[in-house]
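ok posting inputs for the S-adenosylmethionine job
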Amino acid sequence: MSKVDEAIWSKEGYQKRSAVQHMFAEIAPTYDRLNSILSLRLHHRWRRIAVSTLKLEEGTAALDLCCGTGDFLMPLRKAVGQTGQVVGVDFCLPMLGLAREKVREPLSLGDACVLPMASSQFDAVSVGWGIRNVPDIDQAHREAVRVLKPGGRFASLDMARPRNKLLRLISELLFNRFVPVLGALFGKGTAYTYLPKSTQRFLSREDLAASMESAGFENVRCKDLFLGNICIHYAQKPGGLTR
Ligand SMILES: C[S@@+](CC[C@H](N)C(=O)[O-])C[C@H]1O[C@@H](n2cnc3c(N)ncnc32)[C@H](O)[C@@H]1O
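and the output
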């Protein structure tokens, strides 16, 4: 029987935290392959676009939250150059183990809502398909603000619901049917019912932007990709020099 609870998407707080942690531990071995199939191999491109909103320069420092198997760390490294610093943090050891096989950056086992990092350390914080999964989105945003230097930038790439009603209907039909079937082919059917459900339950673009603003970010913007099924929210911590 799957270790993943059937109703993972309906859990909140601490219960959601441990259910999500178990789910990612279970799907870790197939995560990269399914990600490539589901995104039509576009996921690397989307991360590069998210990283470009961070306006990183040679020698700067970047933190990737919910780094998973490490695919954000490569474009971040490219952006900060060899003299820069890139750190990944995730609370799921099997996902970090796969990241370790790909990258040499420091990886930290930790929770995005209680970051094991000192304040005002980073020029940029990124997160990809992570904010949707944390037990307390407002708290994760506050933590991102805390570890950023004044003027530092934040980018969050995640699933979204298309603004257009017809596209939304089509994408929900496809997602609700296709994703769990594909997951089942890889022996992870239950876990992959979580993706469409958690996307439907996720905050709207406006509510996500409001959470970022109330955490302390300014200039919050968003950019749709993949017909509005993917959205990058990006923003800046007040203060510092404008980059
Ligand atoms: C969908 S994967 C995304 C991985 C990676 N960011 C990417 O771009 O492919 C979500 C990751 O978020 C991690 N995660 C979820 N909730 C977390 C939390 N509260 N703290 C730290 N990591 C978390 C999971 O362990 C998983 O590795």
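notes: Residues 17, 20, 24, 66-68, 71-72, 90-92, 95, 111-113, 128-130, 133-134 surround S-adenosylmethionine (CB under 6 Å). Residues 13-38 form the longest helix (26 residues).
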